[in-house]
């Protein structure tokens, strides 16, 4: 169960932000962040000192259709890179003081990688252009992996969890999920992912349309959408969102894949929305549409499209700024006003 935010504490926090030595509202989104964190943590003086990024990894049968600029093997190679501390997200997480947790929920990589939590539900999804990507039970099992991961981190004292992922091909299911759950025209939701050319972009649109025609996912049933046209790492991240919100922990959404996971969780349990913060706006066109569907507004716009949780980790200092301002700024009363 996801609890409502502490409304009385939020009211108290709003009053305090209004008493700080600044014109009311002049710290913009930082004030909204501070007030929402107060509501999440049940204190006017919240903290985001304990931070983690969960990088869910999975492969995709749909790569057989030629929808990515890179081969599936890159997923496993990047898992080794994360474990070695040398990927983009590792560098940024070190800078921001966040721990990196890499979870293999469904890659095709068969070798054990020390430092990667092996929770494989299956070795990649089936090709969603010819049938369902997963069974409902497989999607539920992947969700549970994420939920348990978030529950453990929260129990360990983590106060904010960033959503990271790695999975060659995963912008294809993300656009499919966006199309079904937002009802937006597919043509406006298909992007270049890892950097495909014009012809591949057009092929990718056709592949996704075929996936929707073949699977007929039910927009009223987010689990059906997730199983039929989603991915194992997307399901894992949706589980992280549910588990974090259930534990009262804030979540930083990353790019388009993380947003597809967050939107899936949001449709399963709308109360998770209050725990979500949108970190940045990805180059993928479906990202903006999905964030809007959750009424989230991105903090950063850096023209990024890497994934891994890189954008989410970059936004951690902004959450920290909000917690410091409310704690350290003088009030008008302090000035004798
Ligand atoms: O975060 C994003 O918005 C984002 C946008 C484009 C690509 N990615 C990353 O690139 C991979 C998916 O791209 P693709 O072209 O293989 O579908 C996957 O590993 C993602 O982490 C991530
Ligand atoms: C090299 C590489 C690194 C990534 N990190 C997340 N998605 C990725 C995709 C590629 C291709």
UniProtKB/TrEMBL annotation:
Superkingdom per UniProt: Bacteria
Pfam family name, one: DBI_PRT
GO terms (BP aspect): cobalamin biosynthetic process
Pathway: Nucleoside biosynthesis; alpha-ribazole biosynthesis; alpha-ribazole from 5,6-dimethylbenzimidazole: step 1/2
Residue positions of the active site: 308 (proton acceptor)
Top EC group: transferase
UniProt keyword terms in alphabetical order: Cobalamin biosynthesis, Glycosyltransferase, Transferase
Catalytic activity: 5,6-dimethylbenzimidazole + nicotinate beta-D-ribonucleotide = alpha-ribazole 5'-phosphate + nicotinate + H(+)
InterPro entries: Nict_dMeBzImd_PRibTrfase, Nict_dMeBzImd_PRibTrfase_bact, Nict_dMeBzImd_PRibTrfase_N, Nict_dMeBzImd_PRibTrfase_sf
UniProt GO molecular function: nicotinate-nucleotide-dimethylbenzimidazole phosphoribosyltransferase activity
Transmembrane regions: none
E.C. designation(s): 2.4.2.21
Family named by the database record: Belongs to the CobT family.
Function: Catalyzes the synthesis of alpha-ribazole-5'-phosphate from nicotinate mononucleotide (NAMN) and 5,6-dimethylbenzimidazole (DMB).
Protein's recorded name: Nicotinate-nucleotide--dimethylbenzimidazole phosphoribosyltransferase
Source organism per UniProt: Tumebacillus flagellatus
